[in-house]
Amino acid sequence: MENRMRIMECAKELFYAKGYDAVGVQEIVDRAGITKPTLYYYFGSKLGLLKTLLETKFEEPHAAVRAAAELKEDIRSVLYHMAKAYCDFFERDREFYMLMMALFYSARENEAYQAVKPYVTEFYETVVQAFERASGQLGNMYGRQRQFAIGFIGTLTHYLLLHSEADAGERLEEEKITSLVNQFMYGIFT
Amino acid sequence: MENRMRIMECAKELFYAKGYDAVGVQEIVDRAGITKPTLYYYFGSKLGLLKTLLETKFEEPHAAVRAAAELKEDIRSVLYHMAKAYCDFFERDREFYMLMMALFYSARENEAYQAVKPYVTEFYETVVQAFERASGQLGNMYGRQRQFAIGFIGTLTHYLLLHSEADAGERLEEEKITSLVNQFMYGIFT
DNA sequence: CATTTATTATACCGTTCGGTATATCAGATG
DNA sequence: CATCTGATATACCGAACGGTATAATAAATG
Question: Fold for domain A47-189?
Answer without folding.
Answer: Tetracycline Repressor; domain 2 (1.10.357)
